[in-house]
């Protein structure tokens, strides 16, 4: 099993959604979640990094960290060389598309880029980017976003358009 932070996060979200859908819902604490992830083969260090990554999203959403201040509405985002390596043209185009249809604002875009850059991978696939978008927007307090629409982002076939 690959053992990067994004693998831990995506498995964790799948597991938590599955647990939430069962009739006998019980609160899952960090210890139980860590034990479950460890039992299936994830490295404890990666699990801790994944949980820290999620805590960072929560800190940003709570306003404890401000990653970006929009000076001019409608300004253009210029990516650094490191960001271009991590996010290919298709991924950057997806972020622009999400902004253009009004599902992502500049602050959320910067949160997503910041979270992507904090992942250890050299580059991120469009599919992985969609998971990060779903995690950041799903934790957003700025806009009401339906869970079904968020899932459609992640599970959308690249050959179809979002409607």
Give a verbal description of the structure.
This protein is mostly helical and 163 residues long. The chain has two domains: 65 residues, no CATH class; 97 residues, no CATH class. Helices cover 60% and strands 0% of the residues. Helix 1 packs across helix 3 and helix 6 packs across helix 7. The longest helix has 18 residues. The radius of gyration is 16 Å and the shape is globular. It starts with a helix and ends in an 8-residue tail after the last helix. It comes from Ruthia magnifica subsp. Calyptogena magnifica. It holds the Pfam family DUF494. Belongs to the Smg family. This is Protein Smg homolog.
List key phrases describing it.
single chain; 163 residues; mainly alpha; 8 helices; 60% helix; Protein Smg homolog
């Amino acid at each position: 099993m690959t053992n990067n932070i994004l693998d831990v996060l995506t498995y964790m979200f799948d597991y938590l959604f599955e647990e939430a859908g069962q009739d006998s819902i019980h609160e899952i604490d960090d210890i139980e979640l860590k034990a479950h992830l460890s039992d299936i083969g994830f490295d404890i260090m990666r699990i801790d990094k994944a949980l820290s990554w999620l805590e960072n999203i929560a800190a940003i959403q709570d306003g404890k960290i401000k990653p970006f201040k929009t000076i001019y509405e409608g300004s253009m985002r210029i990516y650094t060389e490191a960001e271009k390596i991590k996010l290919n043209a298709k991924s950057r185009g997806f972020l622009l598309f999400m902004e253009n249809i009004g599902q992502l604002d500049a602050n959320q875009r910067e949160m997503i880029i910041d979270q992507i850059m904090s992942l250890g991978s050299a580059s991120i696939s469009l599919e992985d980017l969609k998971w990060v978008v779903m995690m950041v927007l799903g934790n957003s307090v700025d806009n009401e976003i339906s869970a079904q629409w968020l899932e459609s982002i992640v599970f959308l076939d690249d050959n179809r358009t979002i409607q």
